[in-house]
């Protein structure tokens, strides 16, 4: 069962709903096998507050995260909700910089899955060799590995590397996916994860078939025709939460 520690401060209805949304996302990631011990991070801005976002409590597994034990912090690393849990500095330094510099990016995901880390360590990174990879060609930025991301002075280089993209592959490390909403970040991450899984499987068998750029252009142009109403990723994420609820509903606590 999740370890719930109730915040000591009052919260708005919007914050309460944001907590539930983010907690459900952690459980979805765990269900999908995308958790990594007590590490990695998904953050979400608190609606209506200029400098506040929610992050997982350092020391808990993704399967233990619930609405009440998420930690509310600001870009200076100050805890805003009286939480007794610490925050992983590697998550805070990276995510706080992006939230501050890109205020329209409300959700940020960073993971260490085998497949995304492997592609981040591959010369050429993600390659146009499968359906999902074609979603992202020309839309991924790369940043050279500088060690664990705990130094604030790396922040400007991370921002410069990202540029106008919304996926940053940290070479030899793993992806950072940014989204205007949590469902948008989720579906982007899901498709990236699938692209990496399939690339690894394909390269293990021999020389892949590369999709030409003109076909990639048509593919990316036409993707909007298969989206359902509700915004990018909304129906997909809702379906995954329904699956999580069949396993454990304690994320709502």
UniProtKB/TrEMBL annotation:
Gene3D superfamilies: Class II aldolase/adducin N-terminal domain. It comes from the Bacteria. Pfam families: Aldolase_II. Residues 20-200 form the Class II aldolase/adducin N-terminal domain. One of its GO terms (molecular function) is actin filament binding. GO terms for cellular component: cytoskeleton. Transmembrane segments: none annotated. Belongs to the aldolase class II family. This is Class II aldolase/adducin family protein. It comes from Alterisphingorhabdus coralli.
């Amino acid at each position: 069962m999740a370890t719930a520690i109730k915040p000591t401060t009052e919260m708005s209805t919007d914050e309460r709903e944001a907590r539930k949304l983010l907690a459900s996302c952690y459980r979805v990631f765990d269900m999908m096998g995308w958790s990594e011990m007590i590490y990695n991070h998904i953050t979400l801005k608190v609606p209506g507050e200029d400098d506040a976002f929610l992050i997982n409590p350092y020391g808990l597994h993704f399967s233990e995260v619930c609405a009440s034990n998420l930690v509310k912090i600001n870009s200076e690393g100050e805890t805003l909700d009286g939480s007794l849990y610490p925050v992983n500095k590697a998550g805070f330094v990276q995510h706080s910089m992006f939230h501050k510099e890109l205020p329209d990016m409300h959700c940020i995901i960073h993971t260490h899955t085998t497949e995304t880390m492997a592609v981040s360590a591959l010369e050429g990174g993600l390659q146009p060799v499968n359906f999902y990879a074609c979603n992202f060609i020309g839309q991924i930025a790369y940043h050279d590995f500088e060690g664990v991301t705990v130094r604030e002075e790396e922040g400007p280089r991370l921002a410069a590397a990202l540029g106008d993209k919304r996926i940053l592959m940290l070479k030899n490390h793993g992806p950072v996916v940014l989204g205007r909403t949590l469902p948008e970040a989720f579906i982007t991450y899901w498709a990236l994860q699938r692209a990496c899984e399939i690339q690894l499987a394909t390269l293990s068998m021999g020389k892949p078939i590369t999709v030409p750029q003109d076909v990639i252009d048509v593919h990316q142009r036409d993707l909007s025709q298969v989206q359902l109403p509700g915004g990018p990723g909304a129906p997909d994420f809702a379906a995954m939460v329904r699956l999580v609820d069949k396993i454990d509903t304690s994320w709502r606590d």
